[in-house]
Amino acid sequence: MSKLYLQTDGDHIYLYMNHEKGKENSYLRYDLHHCVVPYEGGIYQNMNQWRLYELYAYELRDGKLVQSIPYMLINGGEWECAIQIKDTRDFHGGIHGYEHYKKVSAKINGEDFSFPGTPFEGWVDTFEFEQESIIIQQETKDTPAAKHLKQYLFKDGKIHLHQEVEWLYDCTLVNQFLTMYPIRRTSDDTPNGEQISDRLIFGGDPVTYDVGPVGHTNGKARTGITYAKIWGEELGLYSEVSVDYDQQPTDVFFVRNDATYNKMYFSTARDRDVKKGDVFEMNTTFEAYRK
Q1: b/e per residue, 210-233, with b = 16+ CB within 10 A?
Q2: pLDDT tens-digit profile of 188-204?
Q3: What is the mean pLDDT of the chain?
Q4: Is 132 left (phi over 0), alpha (psi -120 to 50) or beta?
Q5: Which of 37, 94, 107, 289 holds its CA 20 to 30 A away from the CA of 201?
Q6: If you write DSSP's letter for every residue of 95-107 in order, what string do you get?
Q7: How many domains, the chain?
Q8: In the predicted model, what is the mean pLDDT of residues 114-127?
C-alpha cells in the first residue's frame, strides 16, 4: 500500500506521508499553499505563489486519516526562500512576499496532472510539483530581481526540493536562505506548553544540544554544515534536513531562538556581490516522522 495520500483543494495541496522511521500508522500532513497578498507598498505582501505551509500529525485508523495532535507542529513560516538585498527593509520571496509565479505544473506517479484543474483525492506513490516565479524588487510593484525555480518530489515520507535562483540585475546580498525549517518550540509558544523540539545535532558533531529553553545559545552560527536533526523528547517528532550546494566559507547554519520556534537556517550567499546572470542552486531533503 502507498504511504502517500494526496488531496488537492483549491488553494491547498495536502500531502499525508508516512516515513519508514516512524510508527506504522503515523502520518504527517504537509501543505503546499497558494498564498496571495496584493501590493500596497509595504512588506509581507505583493505575492502570488505556492509554498510549503504548516505541518500537522495524523494517524491511519480503520482506513481513515484522523488528526492525532490538535495543534500544528510547524508554523506558517518560510521553508524555501528568504533573500535580503542590501539597503532593503526586509527579505524577498516566500512569506516575505515580492514573488509571483509564472507557471506551475504537477505530476502524479510520473504522469502529468492537470493543475490547477479537477480536484484529486487518493493514495499515490509520488507527487511532483514545479513552480517558476519572479522575485520582485522590494517596494516596487513589478520590477524583476531574479528568476526562481522550485521543483518538489514527495516520495517515501520525504520531500526532495531542487531550487535555482538566477539574478536579473547586479546587487549585494546580505543573506540568501534557500533552506529553512520553522519547527515550533512548544504547543502554545510558552514554556508551559508541550515540548515539540528540544534536541539538536548537526554535521559530524557527536554532541546532542539542548534547544528547549527560550534564550539558548546552542544554535549559534557554524560553517560547513550540510545536515541537521532536531526533535522533541516529549512528543517524539523527529526532523532531518540535508542540503547539497556549492558551499562557500561565509555560508552558515544556525538555529534562530525565540518563543515561537527553533527555526533552522542554511545560508547560500552571505555578504556577497552578485551580477546579472549569476545562478545559485540548492538541493534539499526534508524528512519528518513520529516515533
Answers
A1: ebbeeebebbeeeeebbbbbbbbe
A2: 998 889 999 999 999 98
A3: 95
A4: beta
A5: 94
A6: GGEEEEEEEEEEE
A7: 1
A8: 89
Q: Span 194-216, mean pLDDT?
A: 92
pLDDT at 2 over 60: yes
- Kindly report whether the peptide bond that precedes residue 70 is cis, defined as omega within 30 degrees of 0: no
Beta carbons within 8 Å of 205's beta carbon, 6+ residues apart:
none
Pair 264, 221: CB distance under 8 Å: no
How many other CB atoms sit within 10 Å of the CB of residue 29? 19
Q: Could you give the CA distance from residue 255 to residue 212 in angstroms, rounded to a whole number?
A: 12
Helices (H), 215-263: none
Q: Which amino acid is at 39?
A: Y
Distance CA 289, CA 291 (A): 7
Q: Which residue range forms the structural domain that includes residue 190?
A: 4-290
What predicted TM-score, i.e. pTM, was given to this entire model?
0.96
Query: The domain that contains 71 carries what CATH number?
Result: 2.70.98
pLDDT at 85 over 60: yes
Q: How far apart are CA 248 and CA 257, in angstroms?
A: 24
User: In angstroms, rounded to a whole number, what is the distance separating the alpha carbons of residues 130 and 104?
Assistant: 5
* Cβ atoms of residues 270 and 172 within 8 Å: no
| Whether the Cβ atoms of residue 194 and residue 187 lie closer than 8 Å to each other | yes
Q: Which pLDDT belongs to residue 258?
A: 85
Which residue, 234, 252, 246, is CA-closest to 291?
Answer: 234
Q: How confident is the model at residue 10 (pLDDT cuts 50, 70, 90)?
A: confident
Q: What are the residues facing 181 on neighbouring strands? A: 264
Can you give 128-180 as a three-state secondary structure string?
EEEEEEEEECCCCCCCEEEEEEEEEEEECCEEEEEEEEEECCCEEEEEEEEEE
